[in-house]
Amino acid sequence: MRYERKYRISSFDLDWVRQSVKHHPASFRKIFPDRQINNIYWDTVGLQMYKDNVMGIAKRQKFRLRWYGNEVTNISNPKLEIKKRMNELGDKDIFNINPFQINTASDLSTEIEELTKVNTNLIPVILNSYKRSYWGTPDRKFRITIDYDMQFHSLMNEKKFRKYFLHDNAIILELKYDETCEEESDRITPHIPFRRSKNSKYVIGVEMTHQTLF
Asked: Are 64 and 83 spatial neighbours (Cβ–Cβ below 8 Å)?
């Protein structure tokens, strides 16, 4: 399992955040070109996974369908990820999913339940996309991702996707490392000039798009 330390940044622009990572004394460097990430988050009809996150339940899971690239409507290489959380440690299981079109996402429910061996009547709730910048230390023990240009669409309120109308202008920086590196993290975290904060794109998406539920 690994730690995922998150920082939600609203008061600095993207260039400033990148420069702060580039000049970190641990010598973080780009390890992969920036790319767009797309997700569909699944939940129960009663949004139990959303509620577990907001309530801070220590042991919880999240179902996410992910693919990469600028194509949002015709998905050619999706992966189903089951993200597992135990306090501050996280892990995930990954499954291949057949290609599909975004407006038929709800038809995948049976396939997802068969793959995951769950029977909780999962439904697609949120579609979101964002750009990600990848950084790592030379020893490959620590990685930082910077997420920006976040966009959201509700698949509960409006099942047919045409375009994104909701945007989150914050930047999400995430420090990731294996639990075996926890003792070494003291050489990393003091030099990150932002305040750690709880952040879930799924929770943000639900609260932006389903305000009538609260």
From this structure: yes
